[in-house]
Task: structure prediction
Amino acid sequence: MQFEIHAKDIPISEQLRVHIERRLSFALERFAMRIVKVCVSVGDLNGPRGGVDKRCQVAIVLMPSTTIVMEDRDSNIYVAINRVADKAGRCIGRRLKRRKSGGRQTRISELL
Result:
């Protein structure tokens, strides 16, 4: 997996960079063969005013030209990263499961 990490109004320390890569790698490692690139953007929306304004946005590019984008906000950037990593793992799992099953759902009347 290839990571691109961008920041706006937040300094990216080595500790933050490692946390982003470890957390997303752990959440997405079972889909690594299908993922081309993971773009992470973190930022402080309100600047020094405070509040629930730290944003983490993740764009995941999957193999057959599909891009999944998700975002989370919190007052703590690490919490926002953890939440968006959990969302990403669940979302990609559902997307690939749907694609594997062909999107067709069986009705109860067809089973009887």
